[in-house]
Amino acid sequence: MAMSVGDNSGSEIPKAEINVTPLADVMLVLLIIFMITAPLMSHKVKVDLPRADPNTKPVPIDVPPIDLAVEADGTLYWNDSLINDAILSAKLRAEASNTPQPELDIRADKTTPYSIIWKVMQEAKDAGMVHVGFITHGKGKNGSNPD
What we know:
Largest sheet: 5 strands, mixed
Oligomer: single chain
CATH class of the domain at 66-134: Alpha Beta
Number of helices: 3
Shape: elongated
């Protein structure tokens, strides 16, 4: 920054000057980088790409979730139908192979031992289920549980 010494009139006004040399250096370096990388951006194999129609919208696929109820004694219900462990494993594998995969909603009795719930979750994981959720009661209006 250069400063004016001024004359003897008593008013010294500072003059600010911007040094553009570093700016020019940076611009030259960027120019050289772009000159080197620009030829690398072209593809050697030419492919005729399809054109997307901006007016079409994807149709959402509505997949209903699977309701798996677990009672305190370990009894399982697949969408309100009684099933056993072998059928559960087969149904989970069949549903896991679907695209898009449905969500597995587990409704367990509050007195169900965690070992039973863990076994069901392990079966779902082994089958390849990705979306697993739990159904619970929310809090009431006054902050207490409805049960």
